[in-house]
Specification:
Elements lengths: L2 H11 L4 H13 L3 H14 L5 H12 L3 H18 L2 H16 L1
Helix pairs in contact: 1-2, 2-3, 3-4, 4-5, 4-6, 5-6
Amino acid sequence: MDRVEKLKELLRDSPDDSFLQHALALEYIKTGEEWPARRLFEELLAKDPSYVGSYYHLGKLLERMHETALALGWYEKGMAAAKAVGNRHAFSELEAAYEDLSEG
């Protein structure tokens, strides 16, 4: 069984597991399936906005999809979420991604 199928199976048993959703979205990115990855990240962040690692990956995915305004918006939301949970490392990464994209 490949990783995508294994993660889907695990999610059937634990559909609200943010880590599993995040991991599946990353696997979709690896296999070039951008839309399912985007949908998973968006669903994950709608239900668990404090899962700050997903903001960066969603932003980068949107950049690759040439959705600059959306990517900037997700980076901003991610910075706010990271600040709210006290995750300075995630805040710094999101801030750098935001600045790189907004200057380019």
